[in-house]
Automatic annotation (TrEMBL):
The lineage of its organism: Bacteria, Pseudomonadati, Pseudomonadota, Alphaproteobacteria, Hyphomicrobiales. This is Transcriptional regulator, RpiR family. It comes from Cohaesibacter marisflavi. It comes from the Bacteria. Residues 2-78 form the HTH rpiR-type domain. One of its GO terms (molecular function) is DNA binding. Signal peptide: none annotated. Pfam families: SIS (PF01380). One of its GO terms (biological process) is carbohydrate derivative metabolic process. SUPFAM superfamilies: Homeodomain-like (SSF46689), SIS domain (SSF53697).
Amino acid sequence: MQSIQDRISGHYGQLSGRLKQAADFVVDHEVEIATHSLRSVSGMAGLAPSTFTRLSQALGFSNYEEMRDMCRQRIGRQAMSFSERASLLVEDGAGSSARSFFERQVSASLENLGKLERDINQEQLVAVADRLNDARQVLLFGAFSSTGFMEYLGYLARYFADNWKVAGRMGASLSSAMVGLNEKDAVIILTKAPYARRAIVAAQMAADAGAYVLVITDDISCPALAHASANFIVPTESPQFFSSYAATLVLIETLIGMLVARAGDSARARIEEVETRNHRYGEFWD
């Protein structure tokens, strides 16, 4: 992937003196460009905001936000806290329309999905599905924003299997869920930056018990990866203050589809029985 330094070096000779000043600042302060608003950056550089806008256009970007996104991709959005991202939204979005926010969110989600499709190891995906299908039991754990997605994964799994459960629900201890785990079992850990301590501990406990540990996360720096038997690094870029789970959701639903296909007639029969009971006892609105 081309860096902002590469882009600038390719255009530097054609820049005016003032734009070269701005370009030099960008190269020397890539983290500040990625983590601060245009107003803040222009103040630090002693240059007008319009200078950085003109620089971005001279470098072939459609606007300043595109140039800043390249810097973000280079350093990783983990460098920014949620509050810093929220500040960017407030400062940049004062005059933005709802459509602008929507288009940026959709664009980021599509880029995440495209990157997932390009980068995922298909052979590993098959191997993971096979291992989960063969497991005696599958435990799921997620903390903070990942909690709901593990609940969703557990909800889908219970349609076709009775050996999946979510660990640590309603404040329950991890130890109670991990007791009795062995090499026949599998544990799925979902955690995104900032990483939850309980997620790292859960991965360690499962690995120590000999279980197969699948870690789904957003960066190779995630501490839980040290305990993983397999892992998926899922892109989470978002213009919002939080990380996007769009690509993670696609991965989860893909795994469920692969597992149902492997379970065959038994999965079909169980799903049919669940639906029948939902209708019989009025859980579905008919």
